[in-house]
Amino acid sequence: MEEPLKICNALLLELVSRWSADNKSFRIREHLVPFNIFDVCVVLGLSVRGQDVSFDSCIAGLVNNLFDNEDITIEKIVLKLQEKDNVDNYCRLYILLLFSVFYFPRTSRTVTTFPFSLLDILQSLHLWNWCEAVHSLLVKSLDRASTQFRQQKYA
User: Fold this and answer.
1) What SS3 class is residue 27?
2) Taking the model in full, what pTM does it have?
3) How far apart are CA 37 and CA 136, in angstroms?
4) Which segments in the chain show pLDDT lower than 50?
5) Do the domain assignments include residue 21?
Protein backbone atom coordinates (compact mmCIF):
# COMPACT_ATOMS: atom_id res chain seq x y z
CA MET A 1 0.00 0.00 0.00
CA GLU A 2 1.39 3.35 -1.01
CA GLU A 3 -0.69 5.43 1.41
CA PRO A 4 -2.33 4.66 4.74
CA LEU A 5 -5.92 3.55 4.53
CA LYS A 6 -8.26 6.45 5.29
CA ILE A 7 -10.66 5.39 8.00
CA CYS A 8 -13.28 7.52 9.65
CA ASN A 9 -11.70 8.02 13.08
CA ALA A 10 -14.84 9.58 14.51
CA LEU A 11 -16.85 6.48 13.58
CA LEU A 12 -14.23 4.12 15.02
CA LEU A 13 -14.08 6.15 18.22
CA GLU A 14 -17.87 6.04 18.50
CA LEU A 15 -17.90 2.25 18.00
CA VAL A 16 -15.15 1.73 20.58
CA SER A 17 -16.93 3.96 23.08
CA ARG A 18 -20.13 1.91 22.67
CA TRP A 19 -18.44 -1.51 22.85
CA SER A 20 -19.54 -3.77 25.72
CA ALA A 21 -16.82 -6.36 26.27
CA ASP A 22 -19.01 -8.39 28.63
CA ASN A 23 -21.74 -8.86 26.03
CA LYS A 24 -19.61 -8.68 22.86
CA SER A 25 -22.11 -6.08 21.70
CA PHE A 26 -22.46 -2.41 20.88
CA ARG A 27 -24.70 -0.29 23.13
CA ILE A 28 -27.15 1.73 21.04
CA ARG A 29 -29.38 3.70 23.38
CA GLU A 30 -30.97 1.09 25.66
CA HIS A 31 -30.30 -1.80 23.26
CA LEU A 32 -27.38 -4.15 22.86
CA VAL A 33 -26.53 -5.00 19.26
CA PRO A 34 -24.46 -8.18 19.24
CA PHE A 35 -21.40 -8.47 17.05
CA ASN A 36 -21.16 -12.09 16.03
CA ILE A 37 -19.32 -14.28 13.61
CA PHE A 38 -22.10 -14.04 11.02
CA ASP A 39 -21.53 -10.28 10.75
CA VAL A 40 -17.96 -11.00 9.70
CA CYS A 41 -19.17 -13.75 7.37
CA VAL A 42 -21.57 -11.42 5.55
CA VAL A 43 -19.14 -8.51 5.26
CA LEU A 44 -16.05 -10.48 4.21
CA GLY A 45 -17.67 -13.45 2.50
CA LEU A 46 -15.74 -15.96 4.59
CA SER A 47 -17.13 -19.35 5.50
CA VAL A 48 -18.10 -20.04 9.11
CA ARG A 49 -17.29 -23.73 8.82
CA GLY A 50 -14.02 -25.51 9.30
CA GLN A 51 -11.34 -26.22 11.84
CA ASP A 52 -10.19 -23.56 14.28
CA VAL A 53 -7.11 -21.62 13.23
CA SER A 54 -4.43 -21.63 15.93
CA PHE A 55 -2.08 -18.66 15.65
CA ASP A 56 0.33 -19.91 18.28
CA SER A 57 1.13 -23.19 16.57
CA CYS A 58 1.93 -24.27 13.04
CA ILE A 59 4.30 -21.32 12.57
CA ALA A 60 6.82 -23.33 10.59
CA GLY A 61 6.12 -24.20 6.99
CA LEU A 62 7.07 -23.64 3.38
CA VAL A 63 6.28 -19.91 3.44
CA ASN A 64 8.25 -19.35 6.62
CA ASN A 65 11.21 -21.19 5.07
CA LEU A 66 11.22 -18.78 2.11
CA PHE A 67 12.50 -16.05 4.42
CA ASP A 68 15.65 -17.84 5.70
CA ASN A 69 15.06 -17.08 9.41
CA GLU A 70 14.81 -13.34 8.80
CA ASP A 71 11.99 -11.17 10.12
CA ILE A 72 8.95 -11.32 7.86
CA THR A 73 7.56 -7.89 7.04
CA ILE A 74 5.02 -6.67 4.51
CA GLU A 75 7.84 -5.12 2.49
CA LYS A 76 9.76 -8.41 2.38
CA ILE A 77 6.66 -10.31 1.31
CA VAL A 78 6.20 -7.85 -1.58
CA LEU A 79 9.88 -8.28 -2.56
CA LYS A 80 9.50 -12.07 -2.53
CA LEU A 81 6.41 -11.76 -4.72
CA GLN A 82 8.49 -9.91 -7.31
CA GLU A 83 10.90 -12.86 -7.57
CA LYS A 84 8.17 -15.07 -9.12
CA ASP A 85 10.21 -18.24 -8.60
CA ASN A 86 7.33 -20.71 -8.40
CA VAL A 87 3.58 -20.43 -8.99
CA ASP A 88 2.61 -22.23 -5.76
CA ASN A 89 4.98 -20.11 -3.66
CA TYR A 90 3.69 -16.97 -5.38
CA CYS A 91 0.12 -17.93 -4.41
CA ARG A 92 1.19 -18.72 -0.83
CA LEU A 93 2.97 -15.38 -0.50
CA TYR A 94 0.06 -13.48 -2.04
CA ILE A 95 -2.38 -15.10 0.39
CA LEU A 96 -0.01 -14.34 3.28
CA LEU A 97 0.12 -10.71 2.15
CA LEU A 98 -3.67 -10.46 1.99
CA PHE A 99 -4.12 -12.11 5.37
CA SER A 100 -1.43 -9.93 6.96
CA VAL A 101 -2.77 -6.65 5.60
CA PHE A 102 -6.53 -7.09 5.51
CA TYR A 103 -7.67 -9.92 7.77
CA PHE A 104 -5.02 -10.09 10.52
CA PRO A 105 -3.21 -6.74 10.65
CA ARG A 106 -0.78 -6.11 13.47
CA THR A 107 0.72 -2.99 14.92
CA SER A 108 4.10 -4.73 14.77
CA ARG A 109 6.17 -4.30 11.62
CA THR A 110 6.80 -8.04 11.47
CA VAL A 111 4.33 -10.78 10.61
CA THR A 112 4.47 -13.11 13.59
CA THR A 113 2.30 -15.81 15.10
CA PHE A 114 0.72 -16.52 11.75
CA PRO A 115 0.05 -20.23 11.10
CA PHE A 116 2.34 -20.37 8.06
CA SER A 117 2.05 -24.14 7.70
CA LEU A 118 -1.66 -23.76 6.85
CA LEU A 119 -0.53 -22.20 3.56
CA ASP A 120 1.58 -25.25 2.65
CA ILE A 121 -1.29 -27.09 0.97
CA LEU A 122 -3.23 -24.48 -0.98
CA GLN A 123 -6.06 -26.90 -1.72
CA SER A 124 -6.80 -27.21 2.03
CA LEU A 125 -7.34 -23.51 2.78
CA HIS A 126 -11.11 -24.04 2.71
CA LEU A 127 -10.82 -26.50 5.61
CA TRP A 128 -10.08 -23.70 8.09
CA ASN A 129 -12.53 -21.38 9.81
CA TRP A 130 -11.00 -18.06 8.77
CA CYS A 131 -14.19 -16.20 9.68
CA GLU A 132 -13.94 -17.23 13.33
CA ALA A 133 -10.27 -16.23 13.36
CA VAL A 134 -11.05 -12.74 12.00
CA HIS A 135 -14.01 -12.35 14.38
CA SER A 136 -11.87 -13.37 17.35
CA LEU A 137 -9.16 -10.85 16.40
CA LEU A 138 -11.73 -8.08 15.99
CA VAL A 139 -13.35 -8.81 19.36
CA LYS A 140 -9.95 -8.84 21.11
CA SER A 141 -9.04 -5.56 19.41
CA LEU A 142 -12.35 -3.97 20.39
CA ASP A 143 -11.94 -5.18 23.98
CA ARG A 144 -8.43 -3.71 24.19
CA ALA A 145 -9.40 -0.42 22.51
CA SER A 146 -12.48 -0.06 24.70
CA THR A 147 -10.42 -0.56 27.85
CA GLN A 148 -7.88 2.03 26.72
CA PHE A 149 -10.67 4.45 25.76
CA ARG A 150 -12.27 4.18 29.18
CA GLN A 151 -8.94 4.60 30.97
CA GLN A 152 -8.19 7.77 28.99
CA LYS A 153 -11.71 9.10 29.48
CA TYR A 154 -11.62 8.72 33.26
CA ALA A 155 -7.93 9.61 33.76
Assistant:
1) strand
2) 0.77
3) 8
4) none
5) yes
